[in-house]
Amino acid sequence: MTTVALIGNPNVGKTELFNRFTGLKQHVGNWPGVTVEKKVGKCVCKGKEFEIIDLPGTYSLTANAIDELIARNFIVEGKPDVVVDIIDATNLERNLYLTLLLLELEANVVIALNMWDIARNGGIEIDVKKLEELLGTSVIPTVATTGEGIEKLKDEIINSIKKERRKIKFGYGKEIENKIKKVKEIIKKDDELAKKYPVRWLAIKILEGDEEILKKLDGSKYKNEIIEAAKNDEDFESVLAEKRYDIISRIVEEVVTKKGKEEWTFSDMLDHVFLHRVLGIPIFLALLYAVFQFTFSFSAPFSDMIDLFFGWLGEIAKQNISNSMLASFVSDGVLAGVGSVLVFVPPIFAMFFALALLENSGYLARAAFVMDRLMYKLGLHGKSFIPMMIGFGCNIPGIMAARSIENEKDRIITIMINPLMSCSARLPVYALIAGVIFGSGYMAGAAIFSMYLLGIALAIMMALIFRKLLFKGKPSPFVLELPRYMFPKMKTAMLHMWERGKWFLIKAGTFIFAVVIIIWFLSNFPWNATNGGTSIENSYIAYFGHAIEPVFKPFGWNWQASIALFFGFLAKEAVVGTFGALLGSTQGGIMEALKNAHWFTPLTGFAYMAFVLIYFPCVATIGVMLREMKARYTLITVTYTITLAFIVASIIELIGHLLGFS
Amino acid sequence: MREEKVKAMGIYAAIIGLIYLFISIMEIFGGIYNVPKDIFGGLVLLVIAATYLTGVKRALNGECKGLSFLIAGVFLSSVFGILYILILFANWLEYLIGNASFSFYLRPEIWLFFAILPLAYLIKKEIRW
After folding, report:
1. What is the pLDDT of residue A365?
2. Mutate to test the interface with B, among A269, A485, A490 (most CBs of B within 10 A)
3. Under CATH, to which class is A2-162 assigned?
């Protein structure tokens, strides 16, 4: 099978092209860093089977960040048959840097000159033939969003496998070339090294002092000789980068013609306001508020419909199943438990839809930029904000997205604070409790919004503490390329919503289902002692609940609320599932049942929401944290989240009491 | 773009910005002329008012850069106008399933959204998208 790797700078449309090739529906985002791991798909073209690999977006092929390293290692070690280098046609100067590195690596490169339509409409003319000539490789103009040029690109990929590529050497000047030659000669003596890696590329990397590459010399008997020959006083990495940009400027000068005078574009106008020193952050908060009002208020009737449906189904089950244990299992266990979680499918889908609109429009990247000013002052890297925003969907991809942060200290801080971002699993808990204590008005939406703000504020505060205590020093400067504003496409937003939201459905049907069955068993047995599940106080769960109740009693939470927190350790949705199973099936649905149970006052309920936000990342998140950083940092994260949850809940209750709330 | 047109848009934006400012105060303090008390909602209107009013001076001077604030203001007005129309629809659905009573109350954000439509039209005509 032919292997084709897709590579390019962040946000040039790699994932879109990957989807075009494979027919898959990988999430496409209008901000850098959507692809942090390589994704694999297959496609058949003209009778040939291809394996397509979507590599993380990268500007360079150094070993400074994990995502760059993934891309480079795949090309060097995986040796794909063809490397499709996707270039943003509107920004040739920046994108060609990676192309030069790929050509230096002697990869079989085919260039996709993407966003061709935008370049054309913007008056940028590119002499494709000349570019092909200068780079010694094929260049195909494409528009990944519409599919224009894709068939031609496929044809060229097939052709490039057969044809011999014309090798073009970009010279770096006599002095540097002599150095390269000297190192090359010694490398050539080691057959194994010379066979495994392109010799010129290896020599350049050694001269640049690339640590990952130097490690590869470990087994070579010529290691010392090579290192001796590569010794120099200059910062070769910077010198070579400068030389490459000189080459690029000459290429661009020859192939690009710009028509008309530079005008203030629509994007410039919006950026003038959205990145405004004073208005930038308030506008971001206003839009975030709109997202959560939409999430809660617009989805409310749809949630109620599901709630009523499960309540009705539970009643039918109770009336028609003669065996009381089975009736209780179906009605109070399965239907009430799973139903209580499924009720929150509409708000979760609504939130993902709204965030997808913001992301696809290109605004979220601006939000990261705006927040950088504040975050940098507080010791957090601006790039951390993107993983934080992704954490609103789920902390796991949020943590993974931290891979794009080059500085190790910044990356670990970003991972450690990510569990404070309100993931979609917490949303059902917020929606349920806010609905119970504030009704279905705007106050409930505002209460949910305040949880998201609280999460951001605490994350920034913890980052500041970690920076002062654990990772001293200043965060590295933040460079973010702002994507173009686009009118969000409904289809892409829906796809994004489904891709992210479906995990909630899968989790509800598997993991949460198992948890509610356990809860039903614990709350109905011993069957005789509970009088067939009617006297829950005599059940196993009540014994256990009363055992842990003293820990939470000071906050005014009863044993049922306490036990729900215990199951929430596994997954936050399990908190709602536990309430559903404990309250059983009722016609009015879970919200009505919880309201009538009077388990929460506005103050204790609000503190409970904050506690759920902060305490303990779920089990799956812990697993990913262990993979992404040392175990001791995971342990610190678990410890600080539990401690912080108790502190914040106490402060809320204290202030609430002082203000006269009960 | 003609300077007079930018100036005209600036005057329109000044009026709209002041209305937003006035209603934001009513929402924050609540209960005045049937405007609901909604602190967060009021703060959002304050942000929209600030966006319009920041651009007014430059627009009145005929500077195109002033238009940026008007465009962003129109965008924010549209987001919140459409949002509250959707919520109105959701409330009607709640009424249909028998969960709540319903009154056809148009929040100020909705009628302000309709009020900015002429400005949005003028901008759309003048700007190359």
Report:
1. 81
2. A269
3. alpha beta
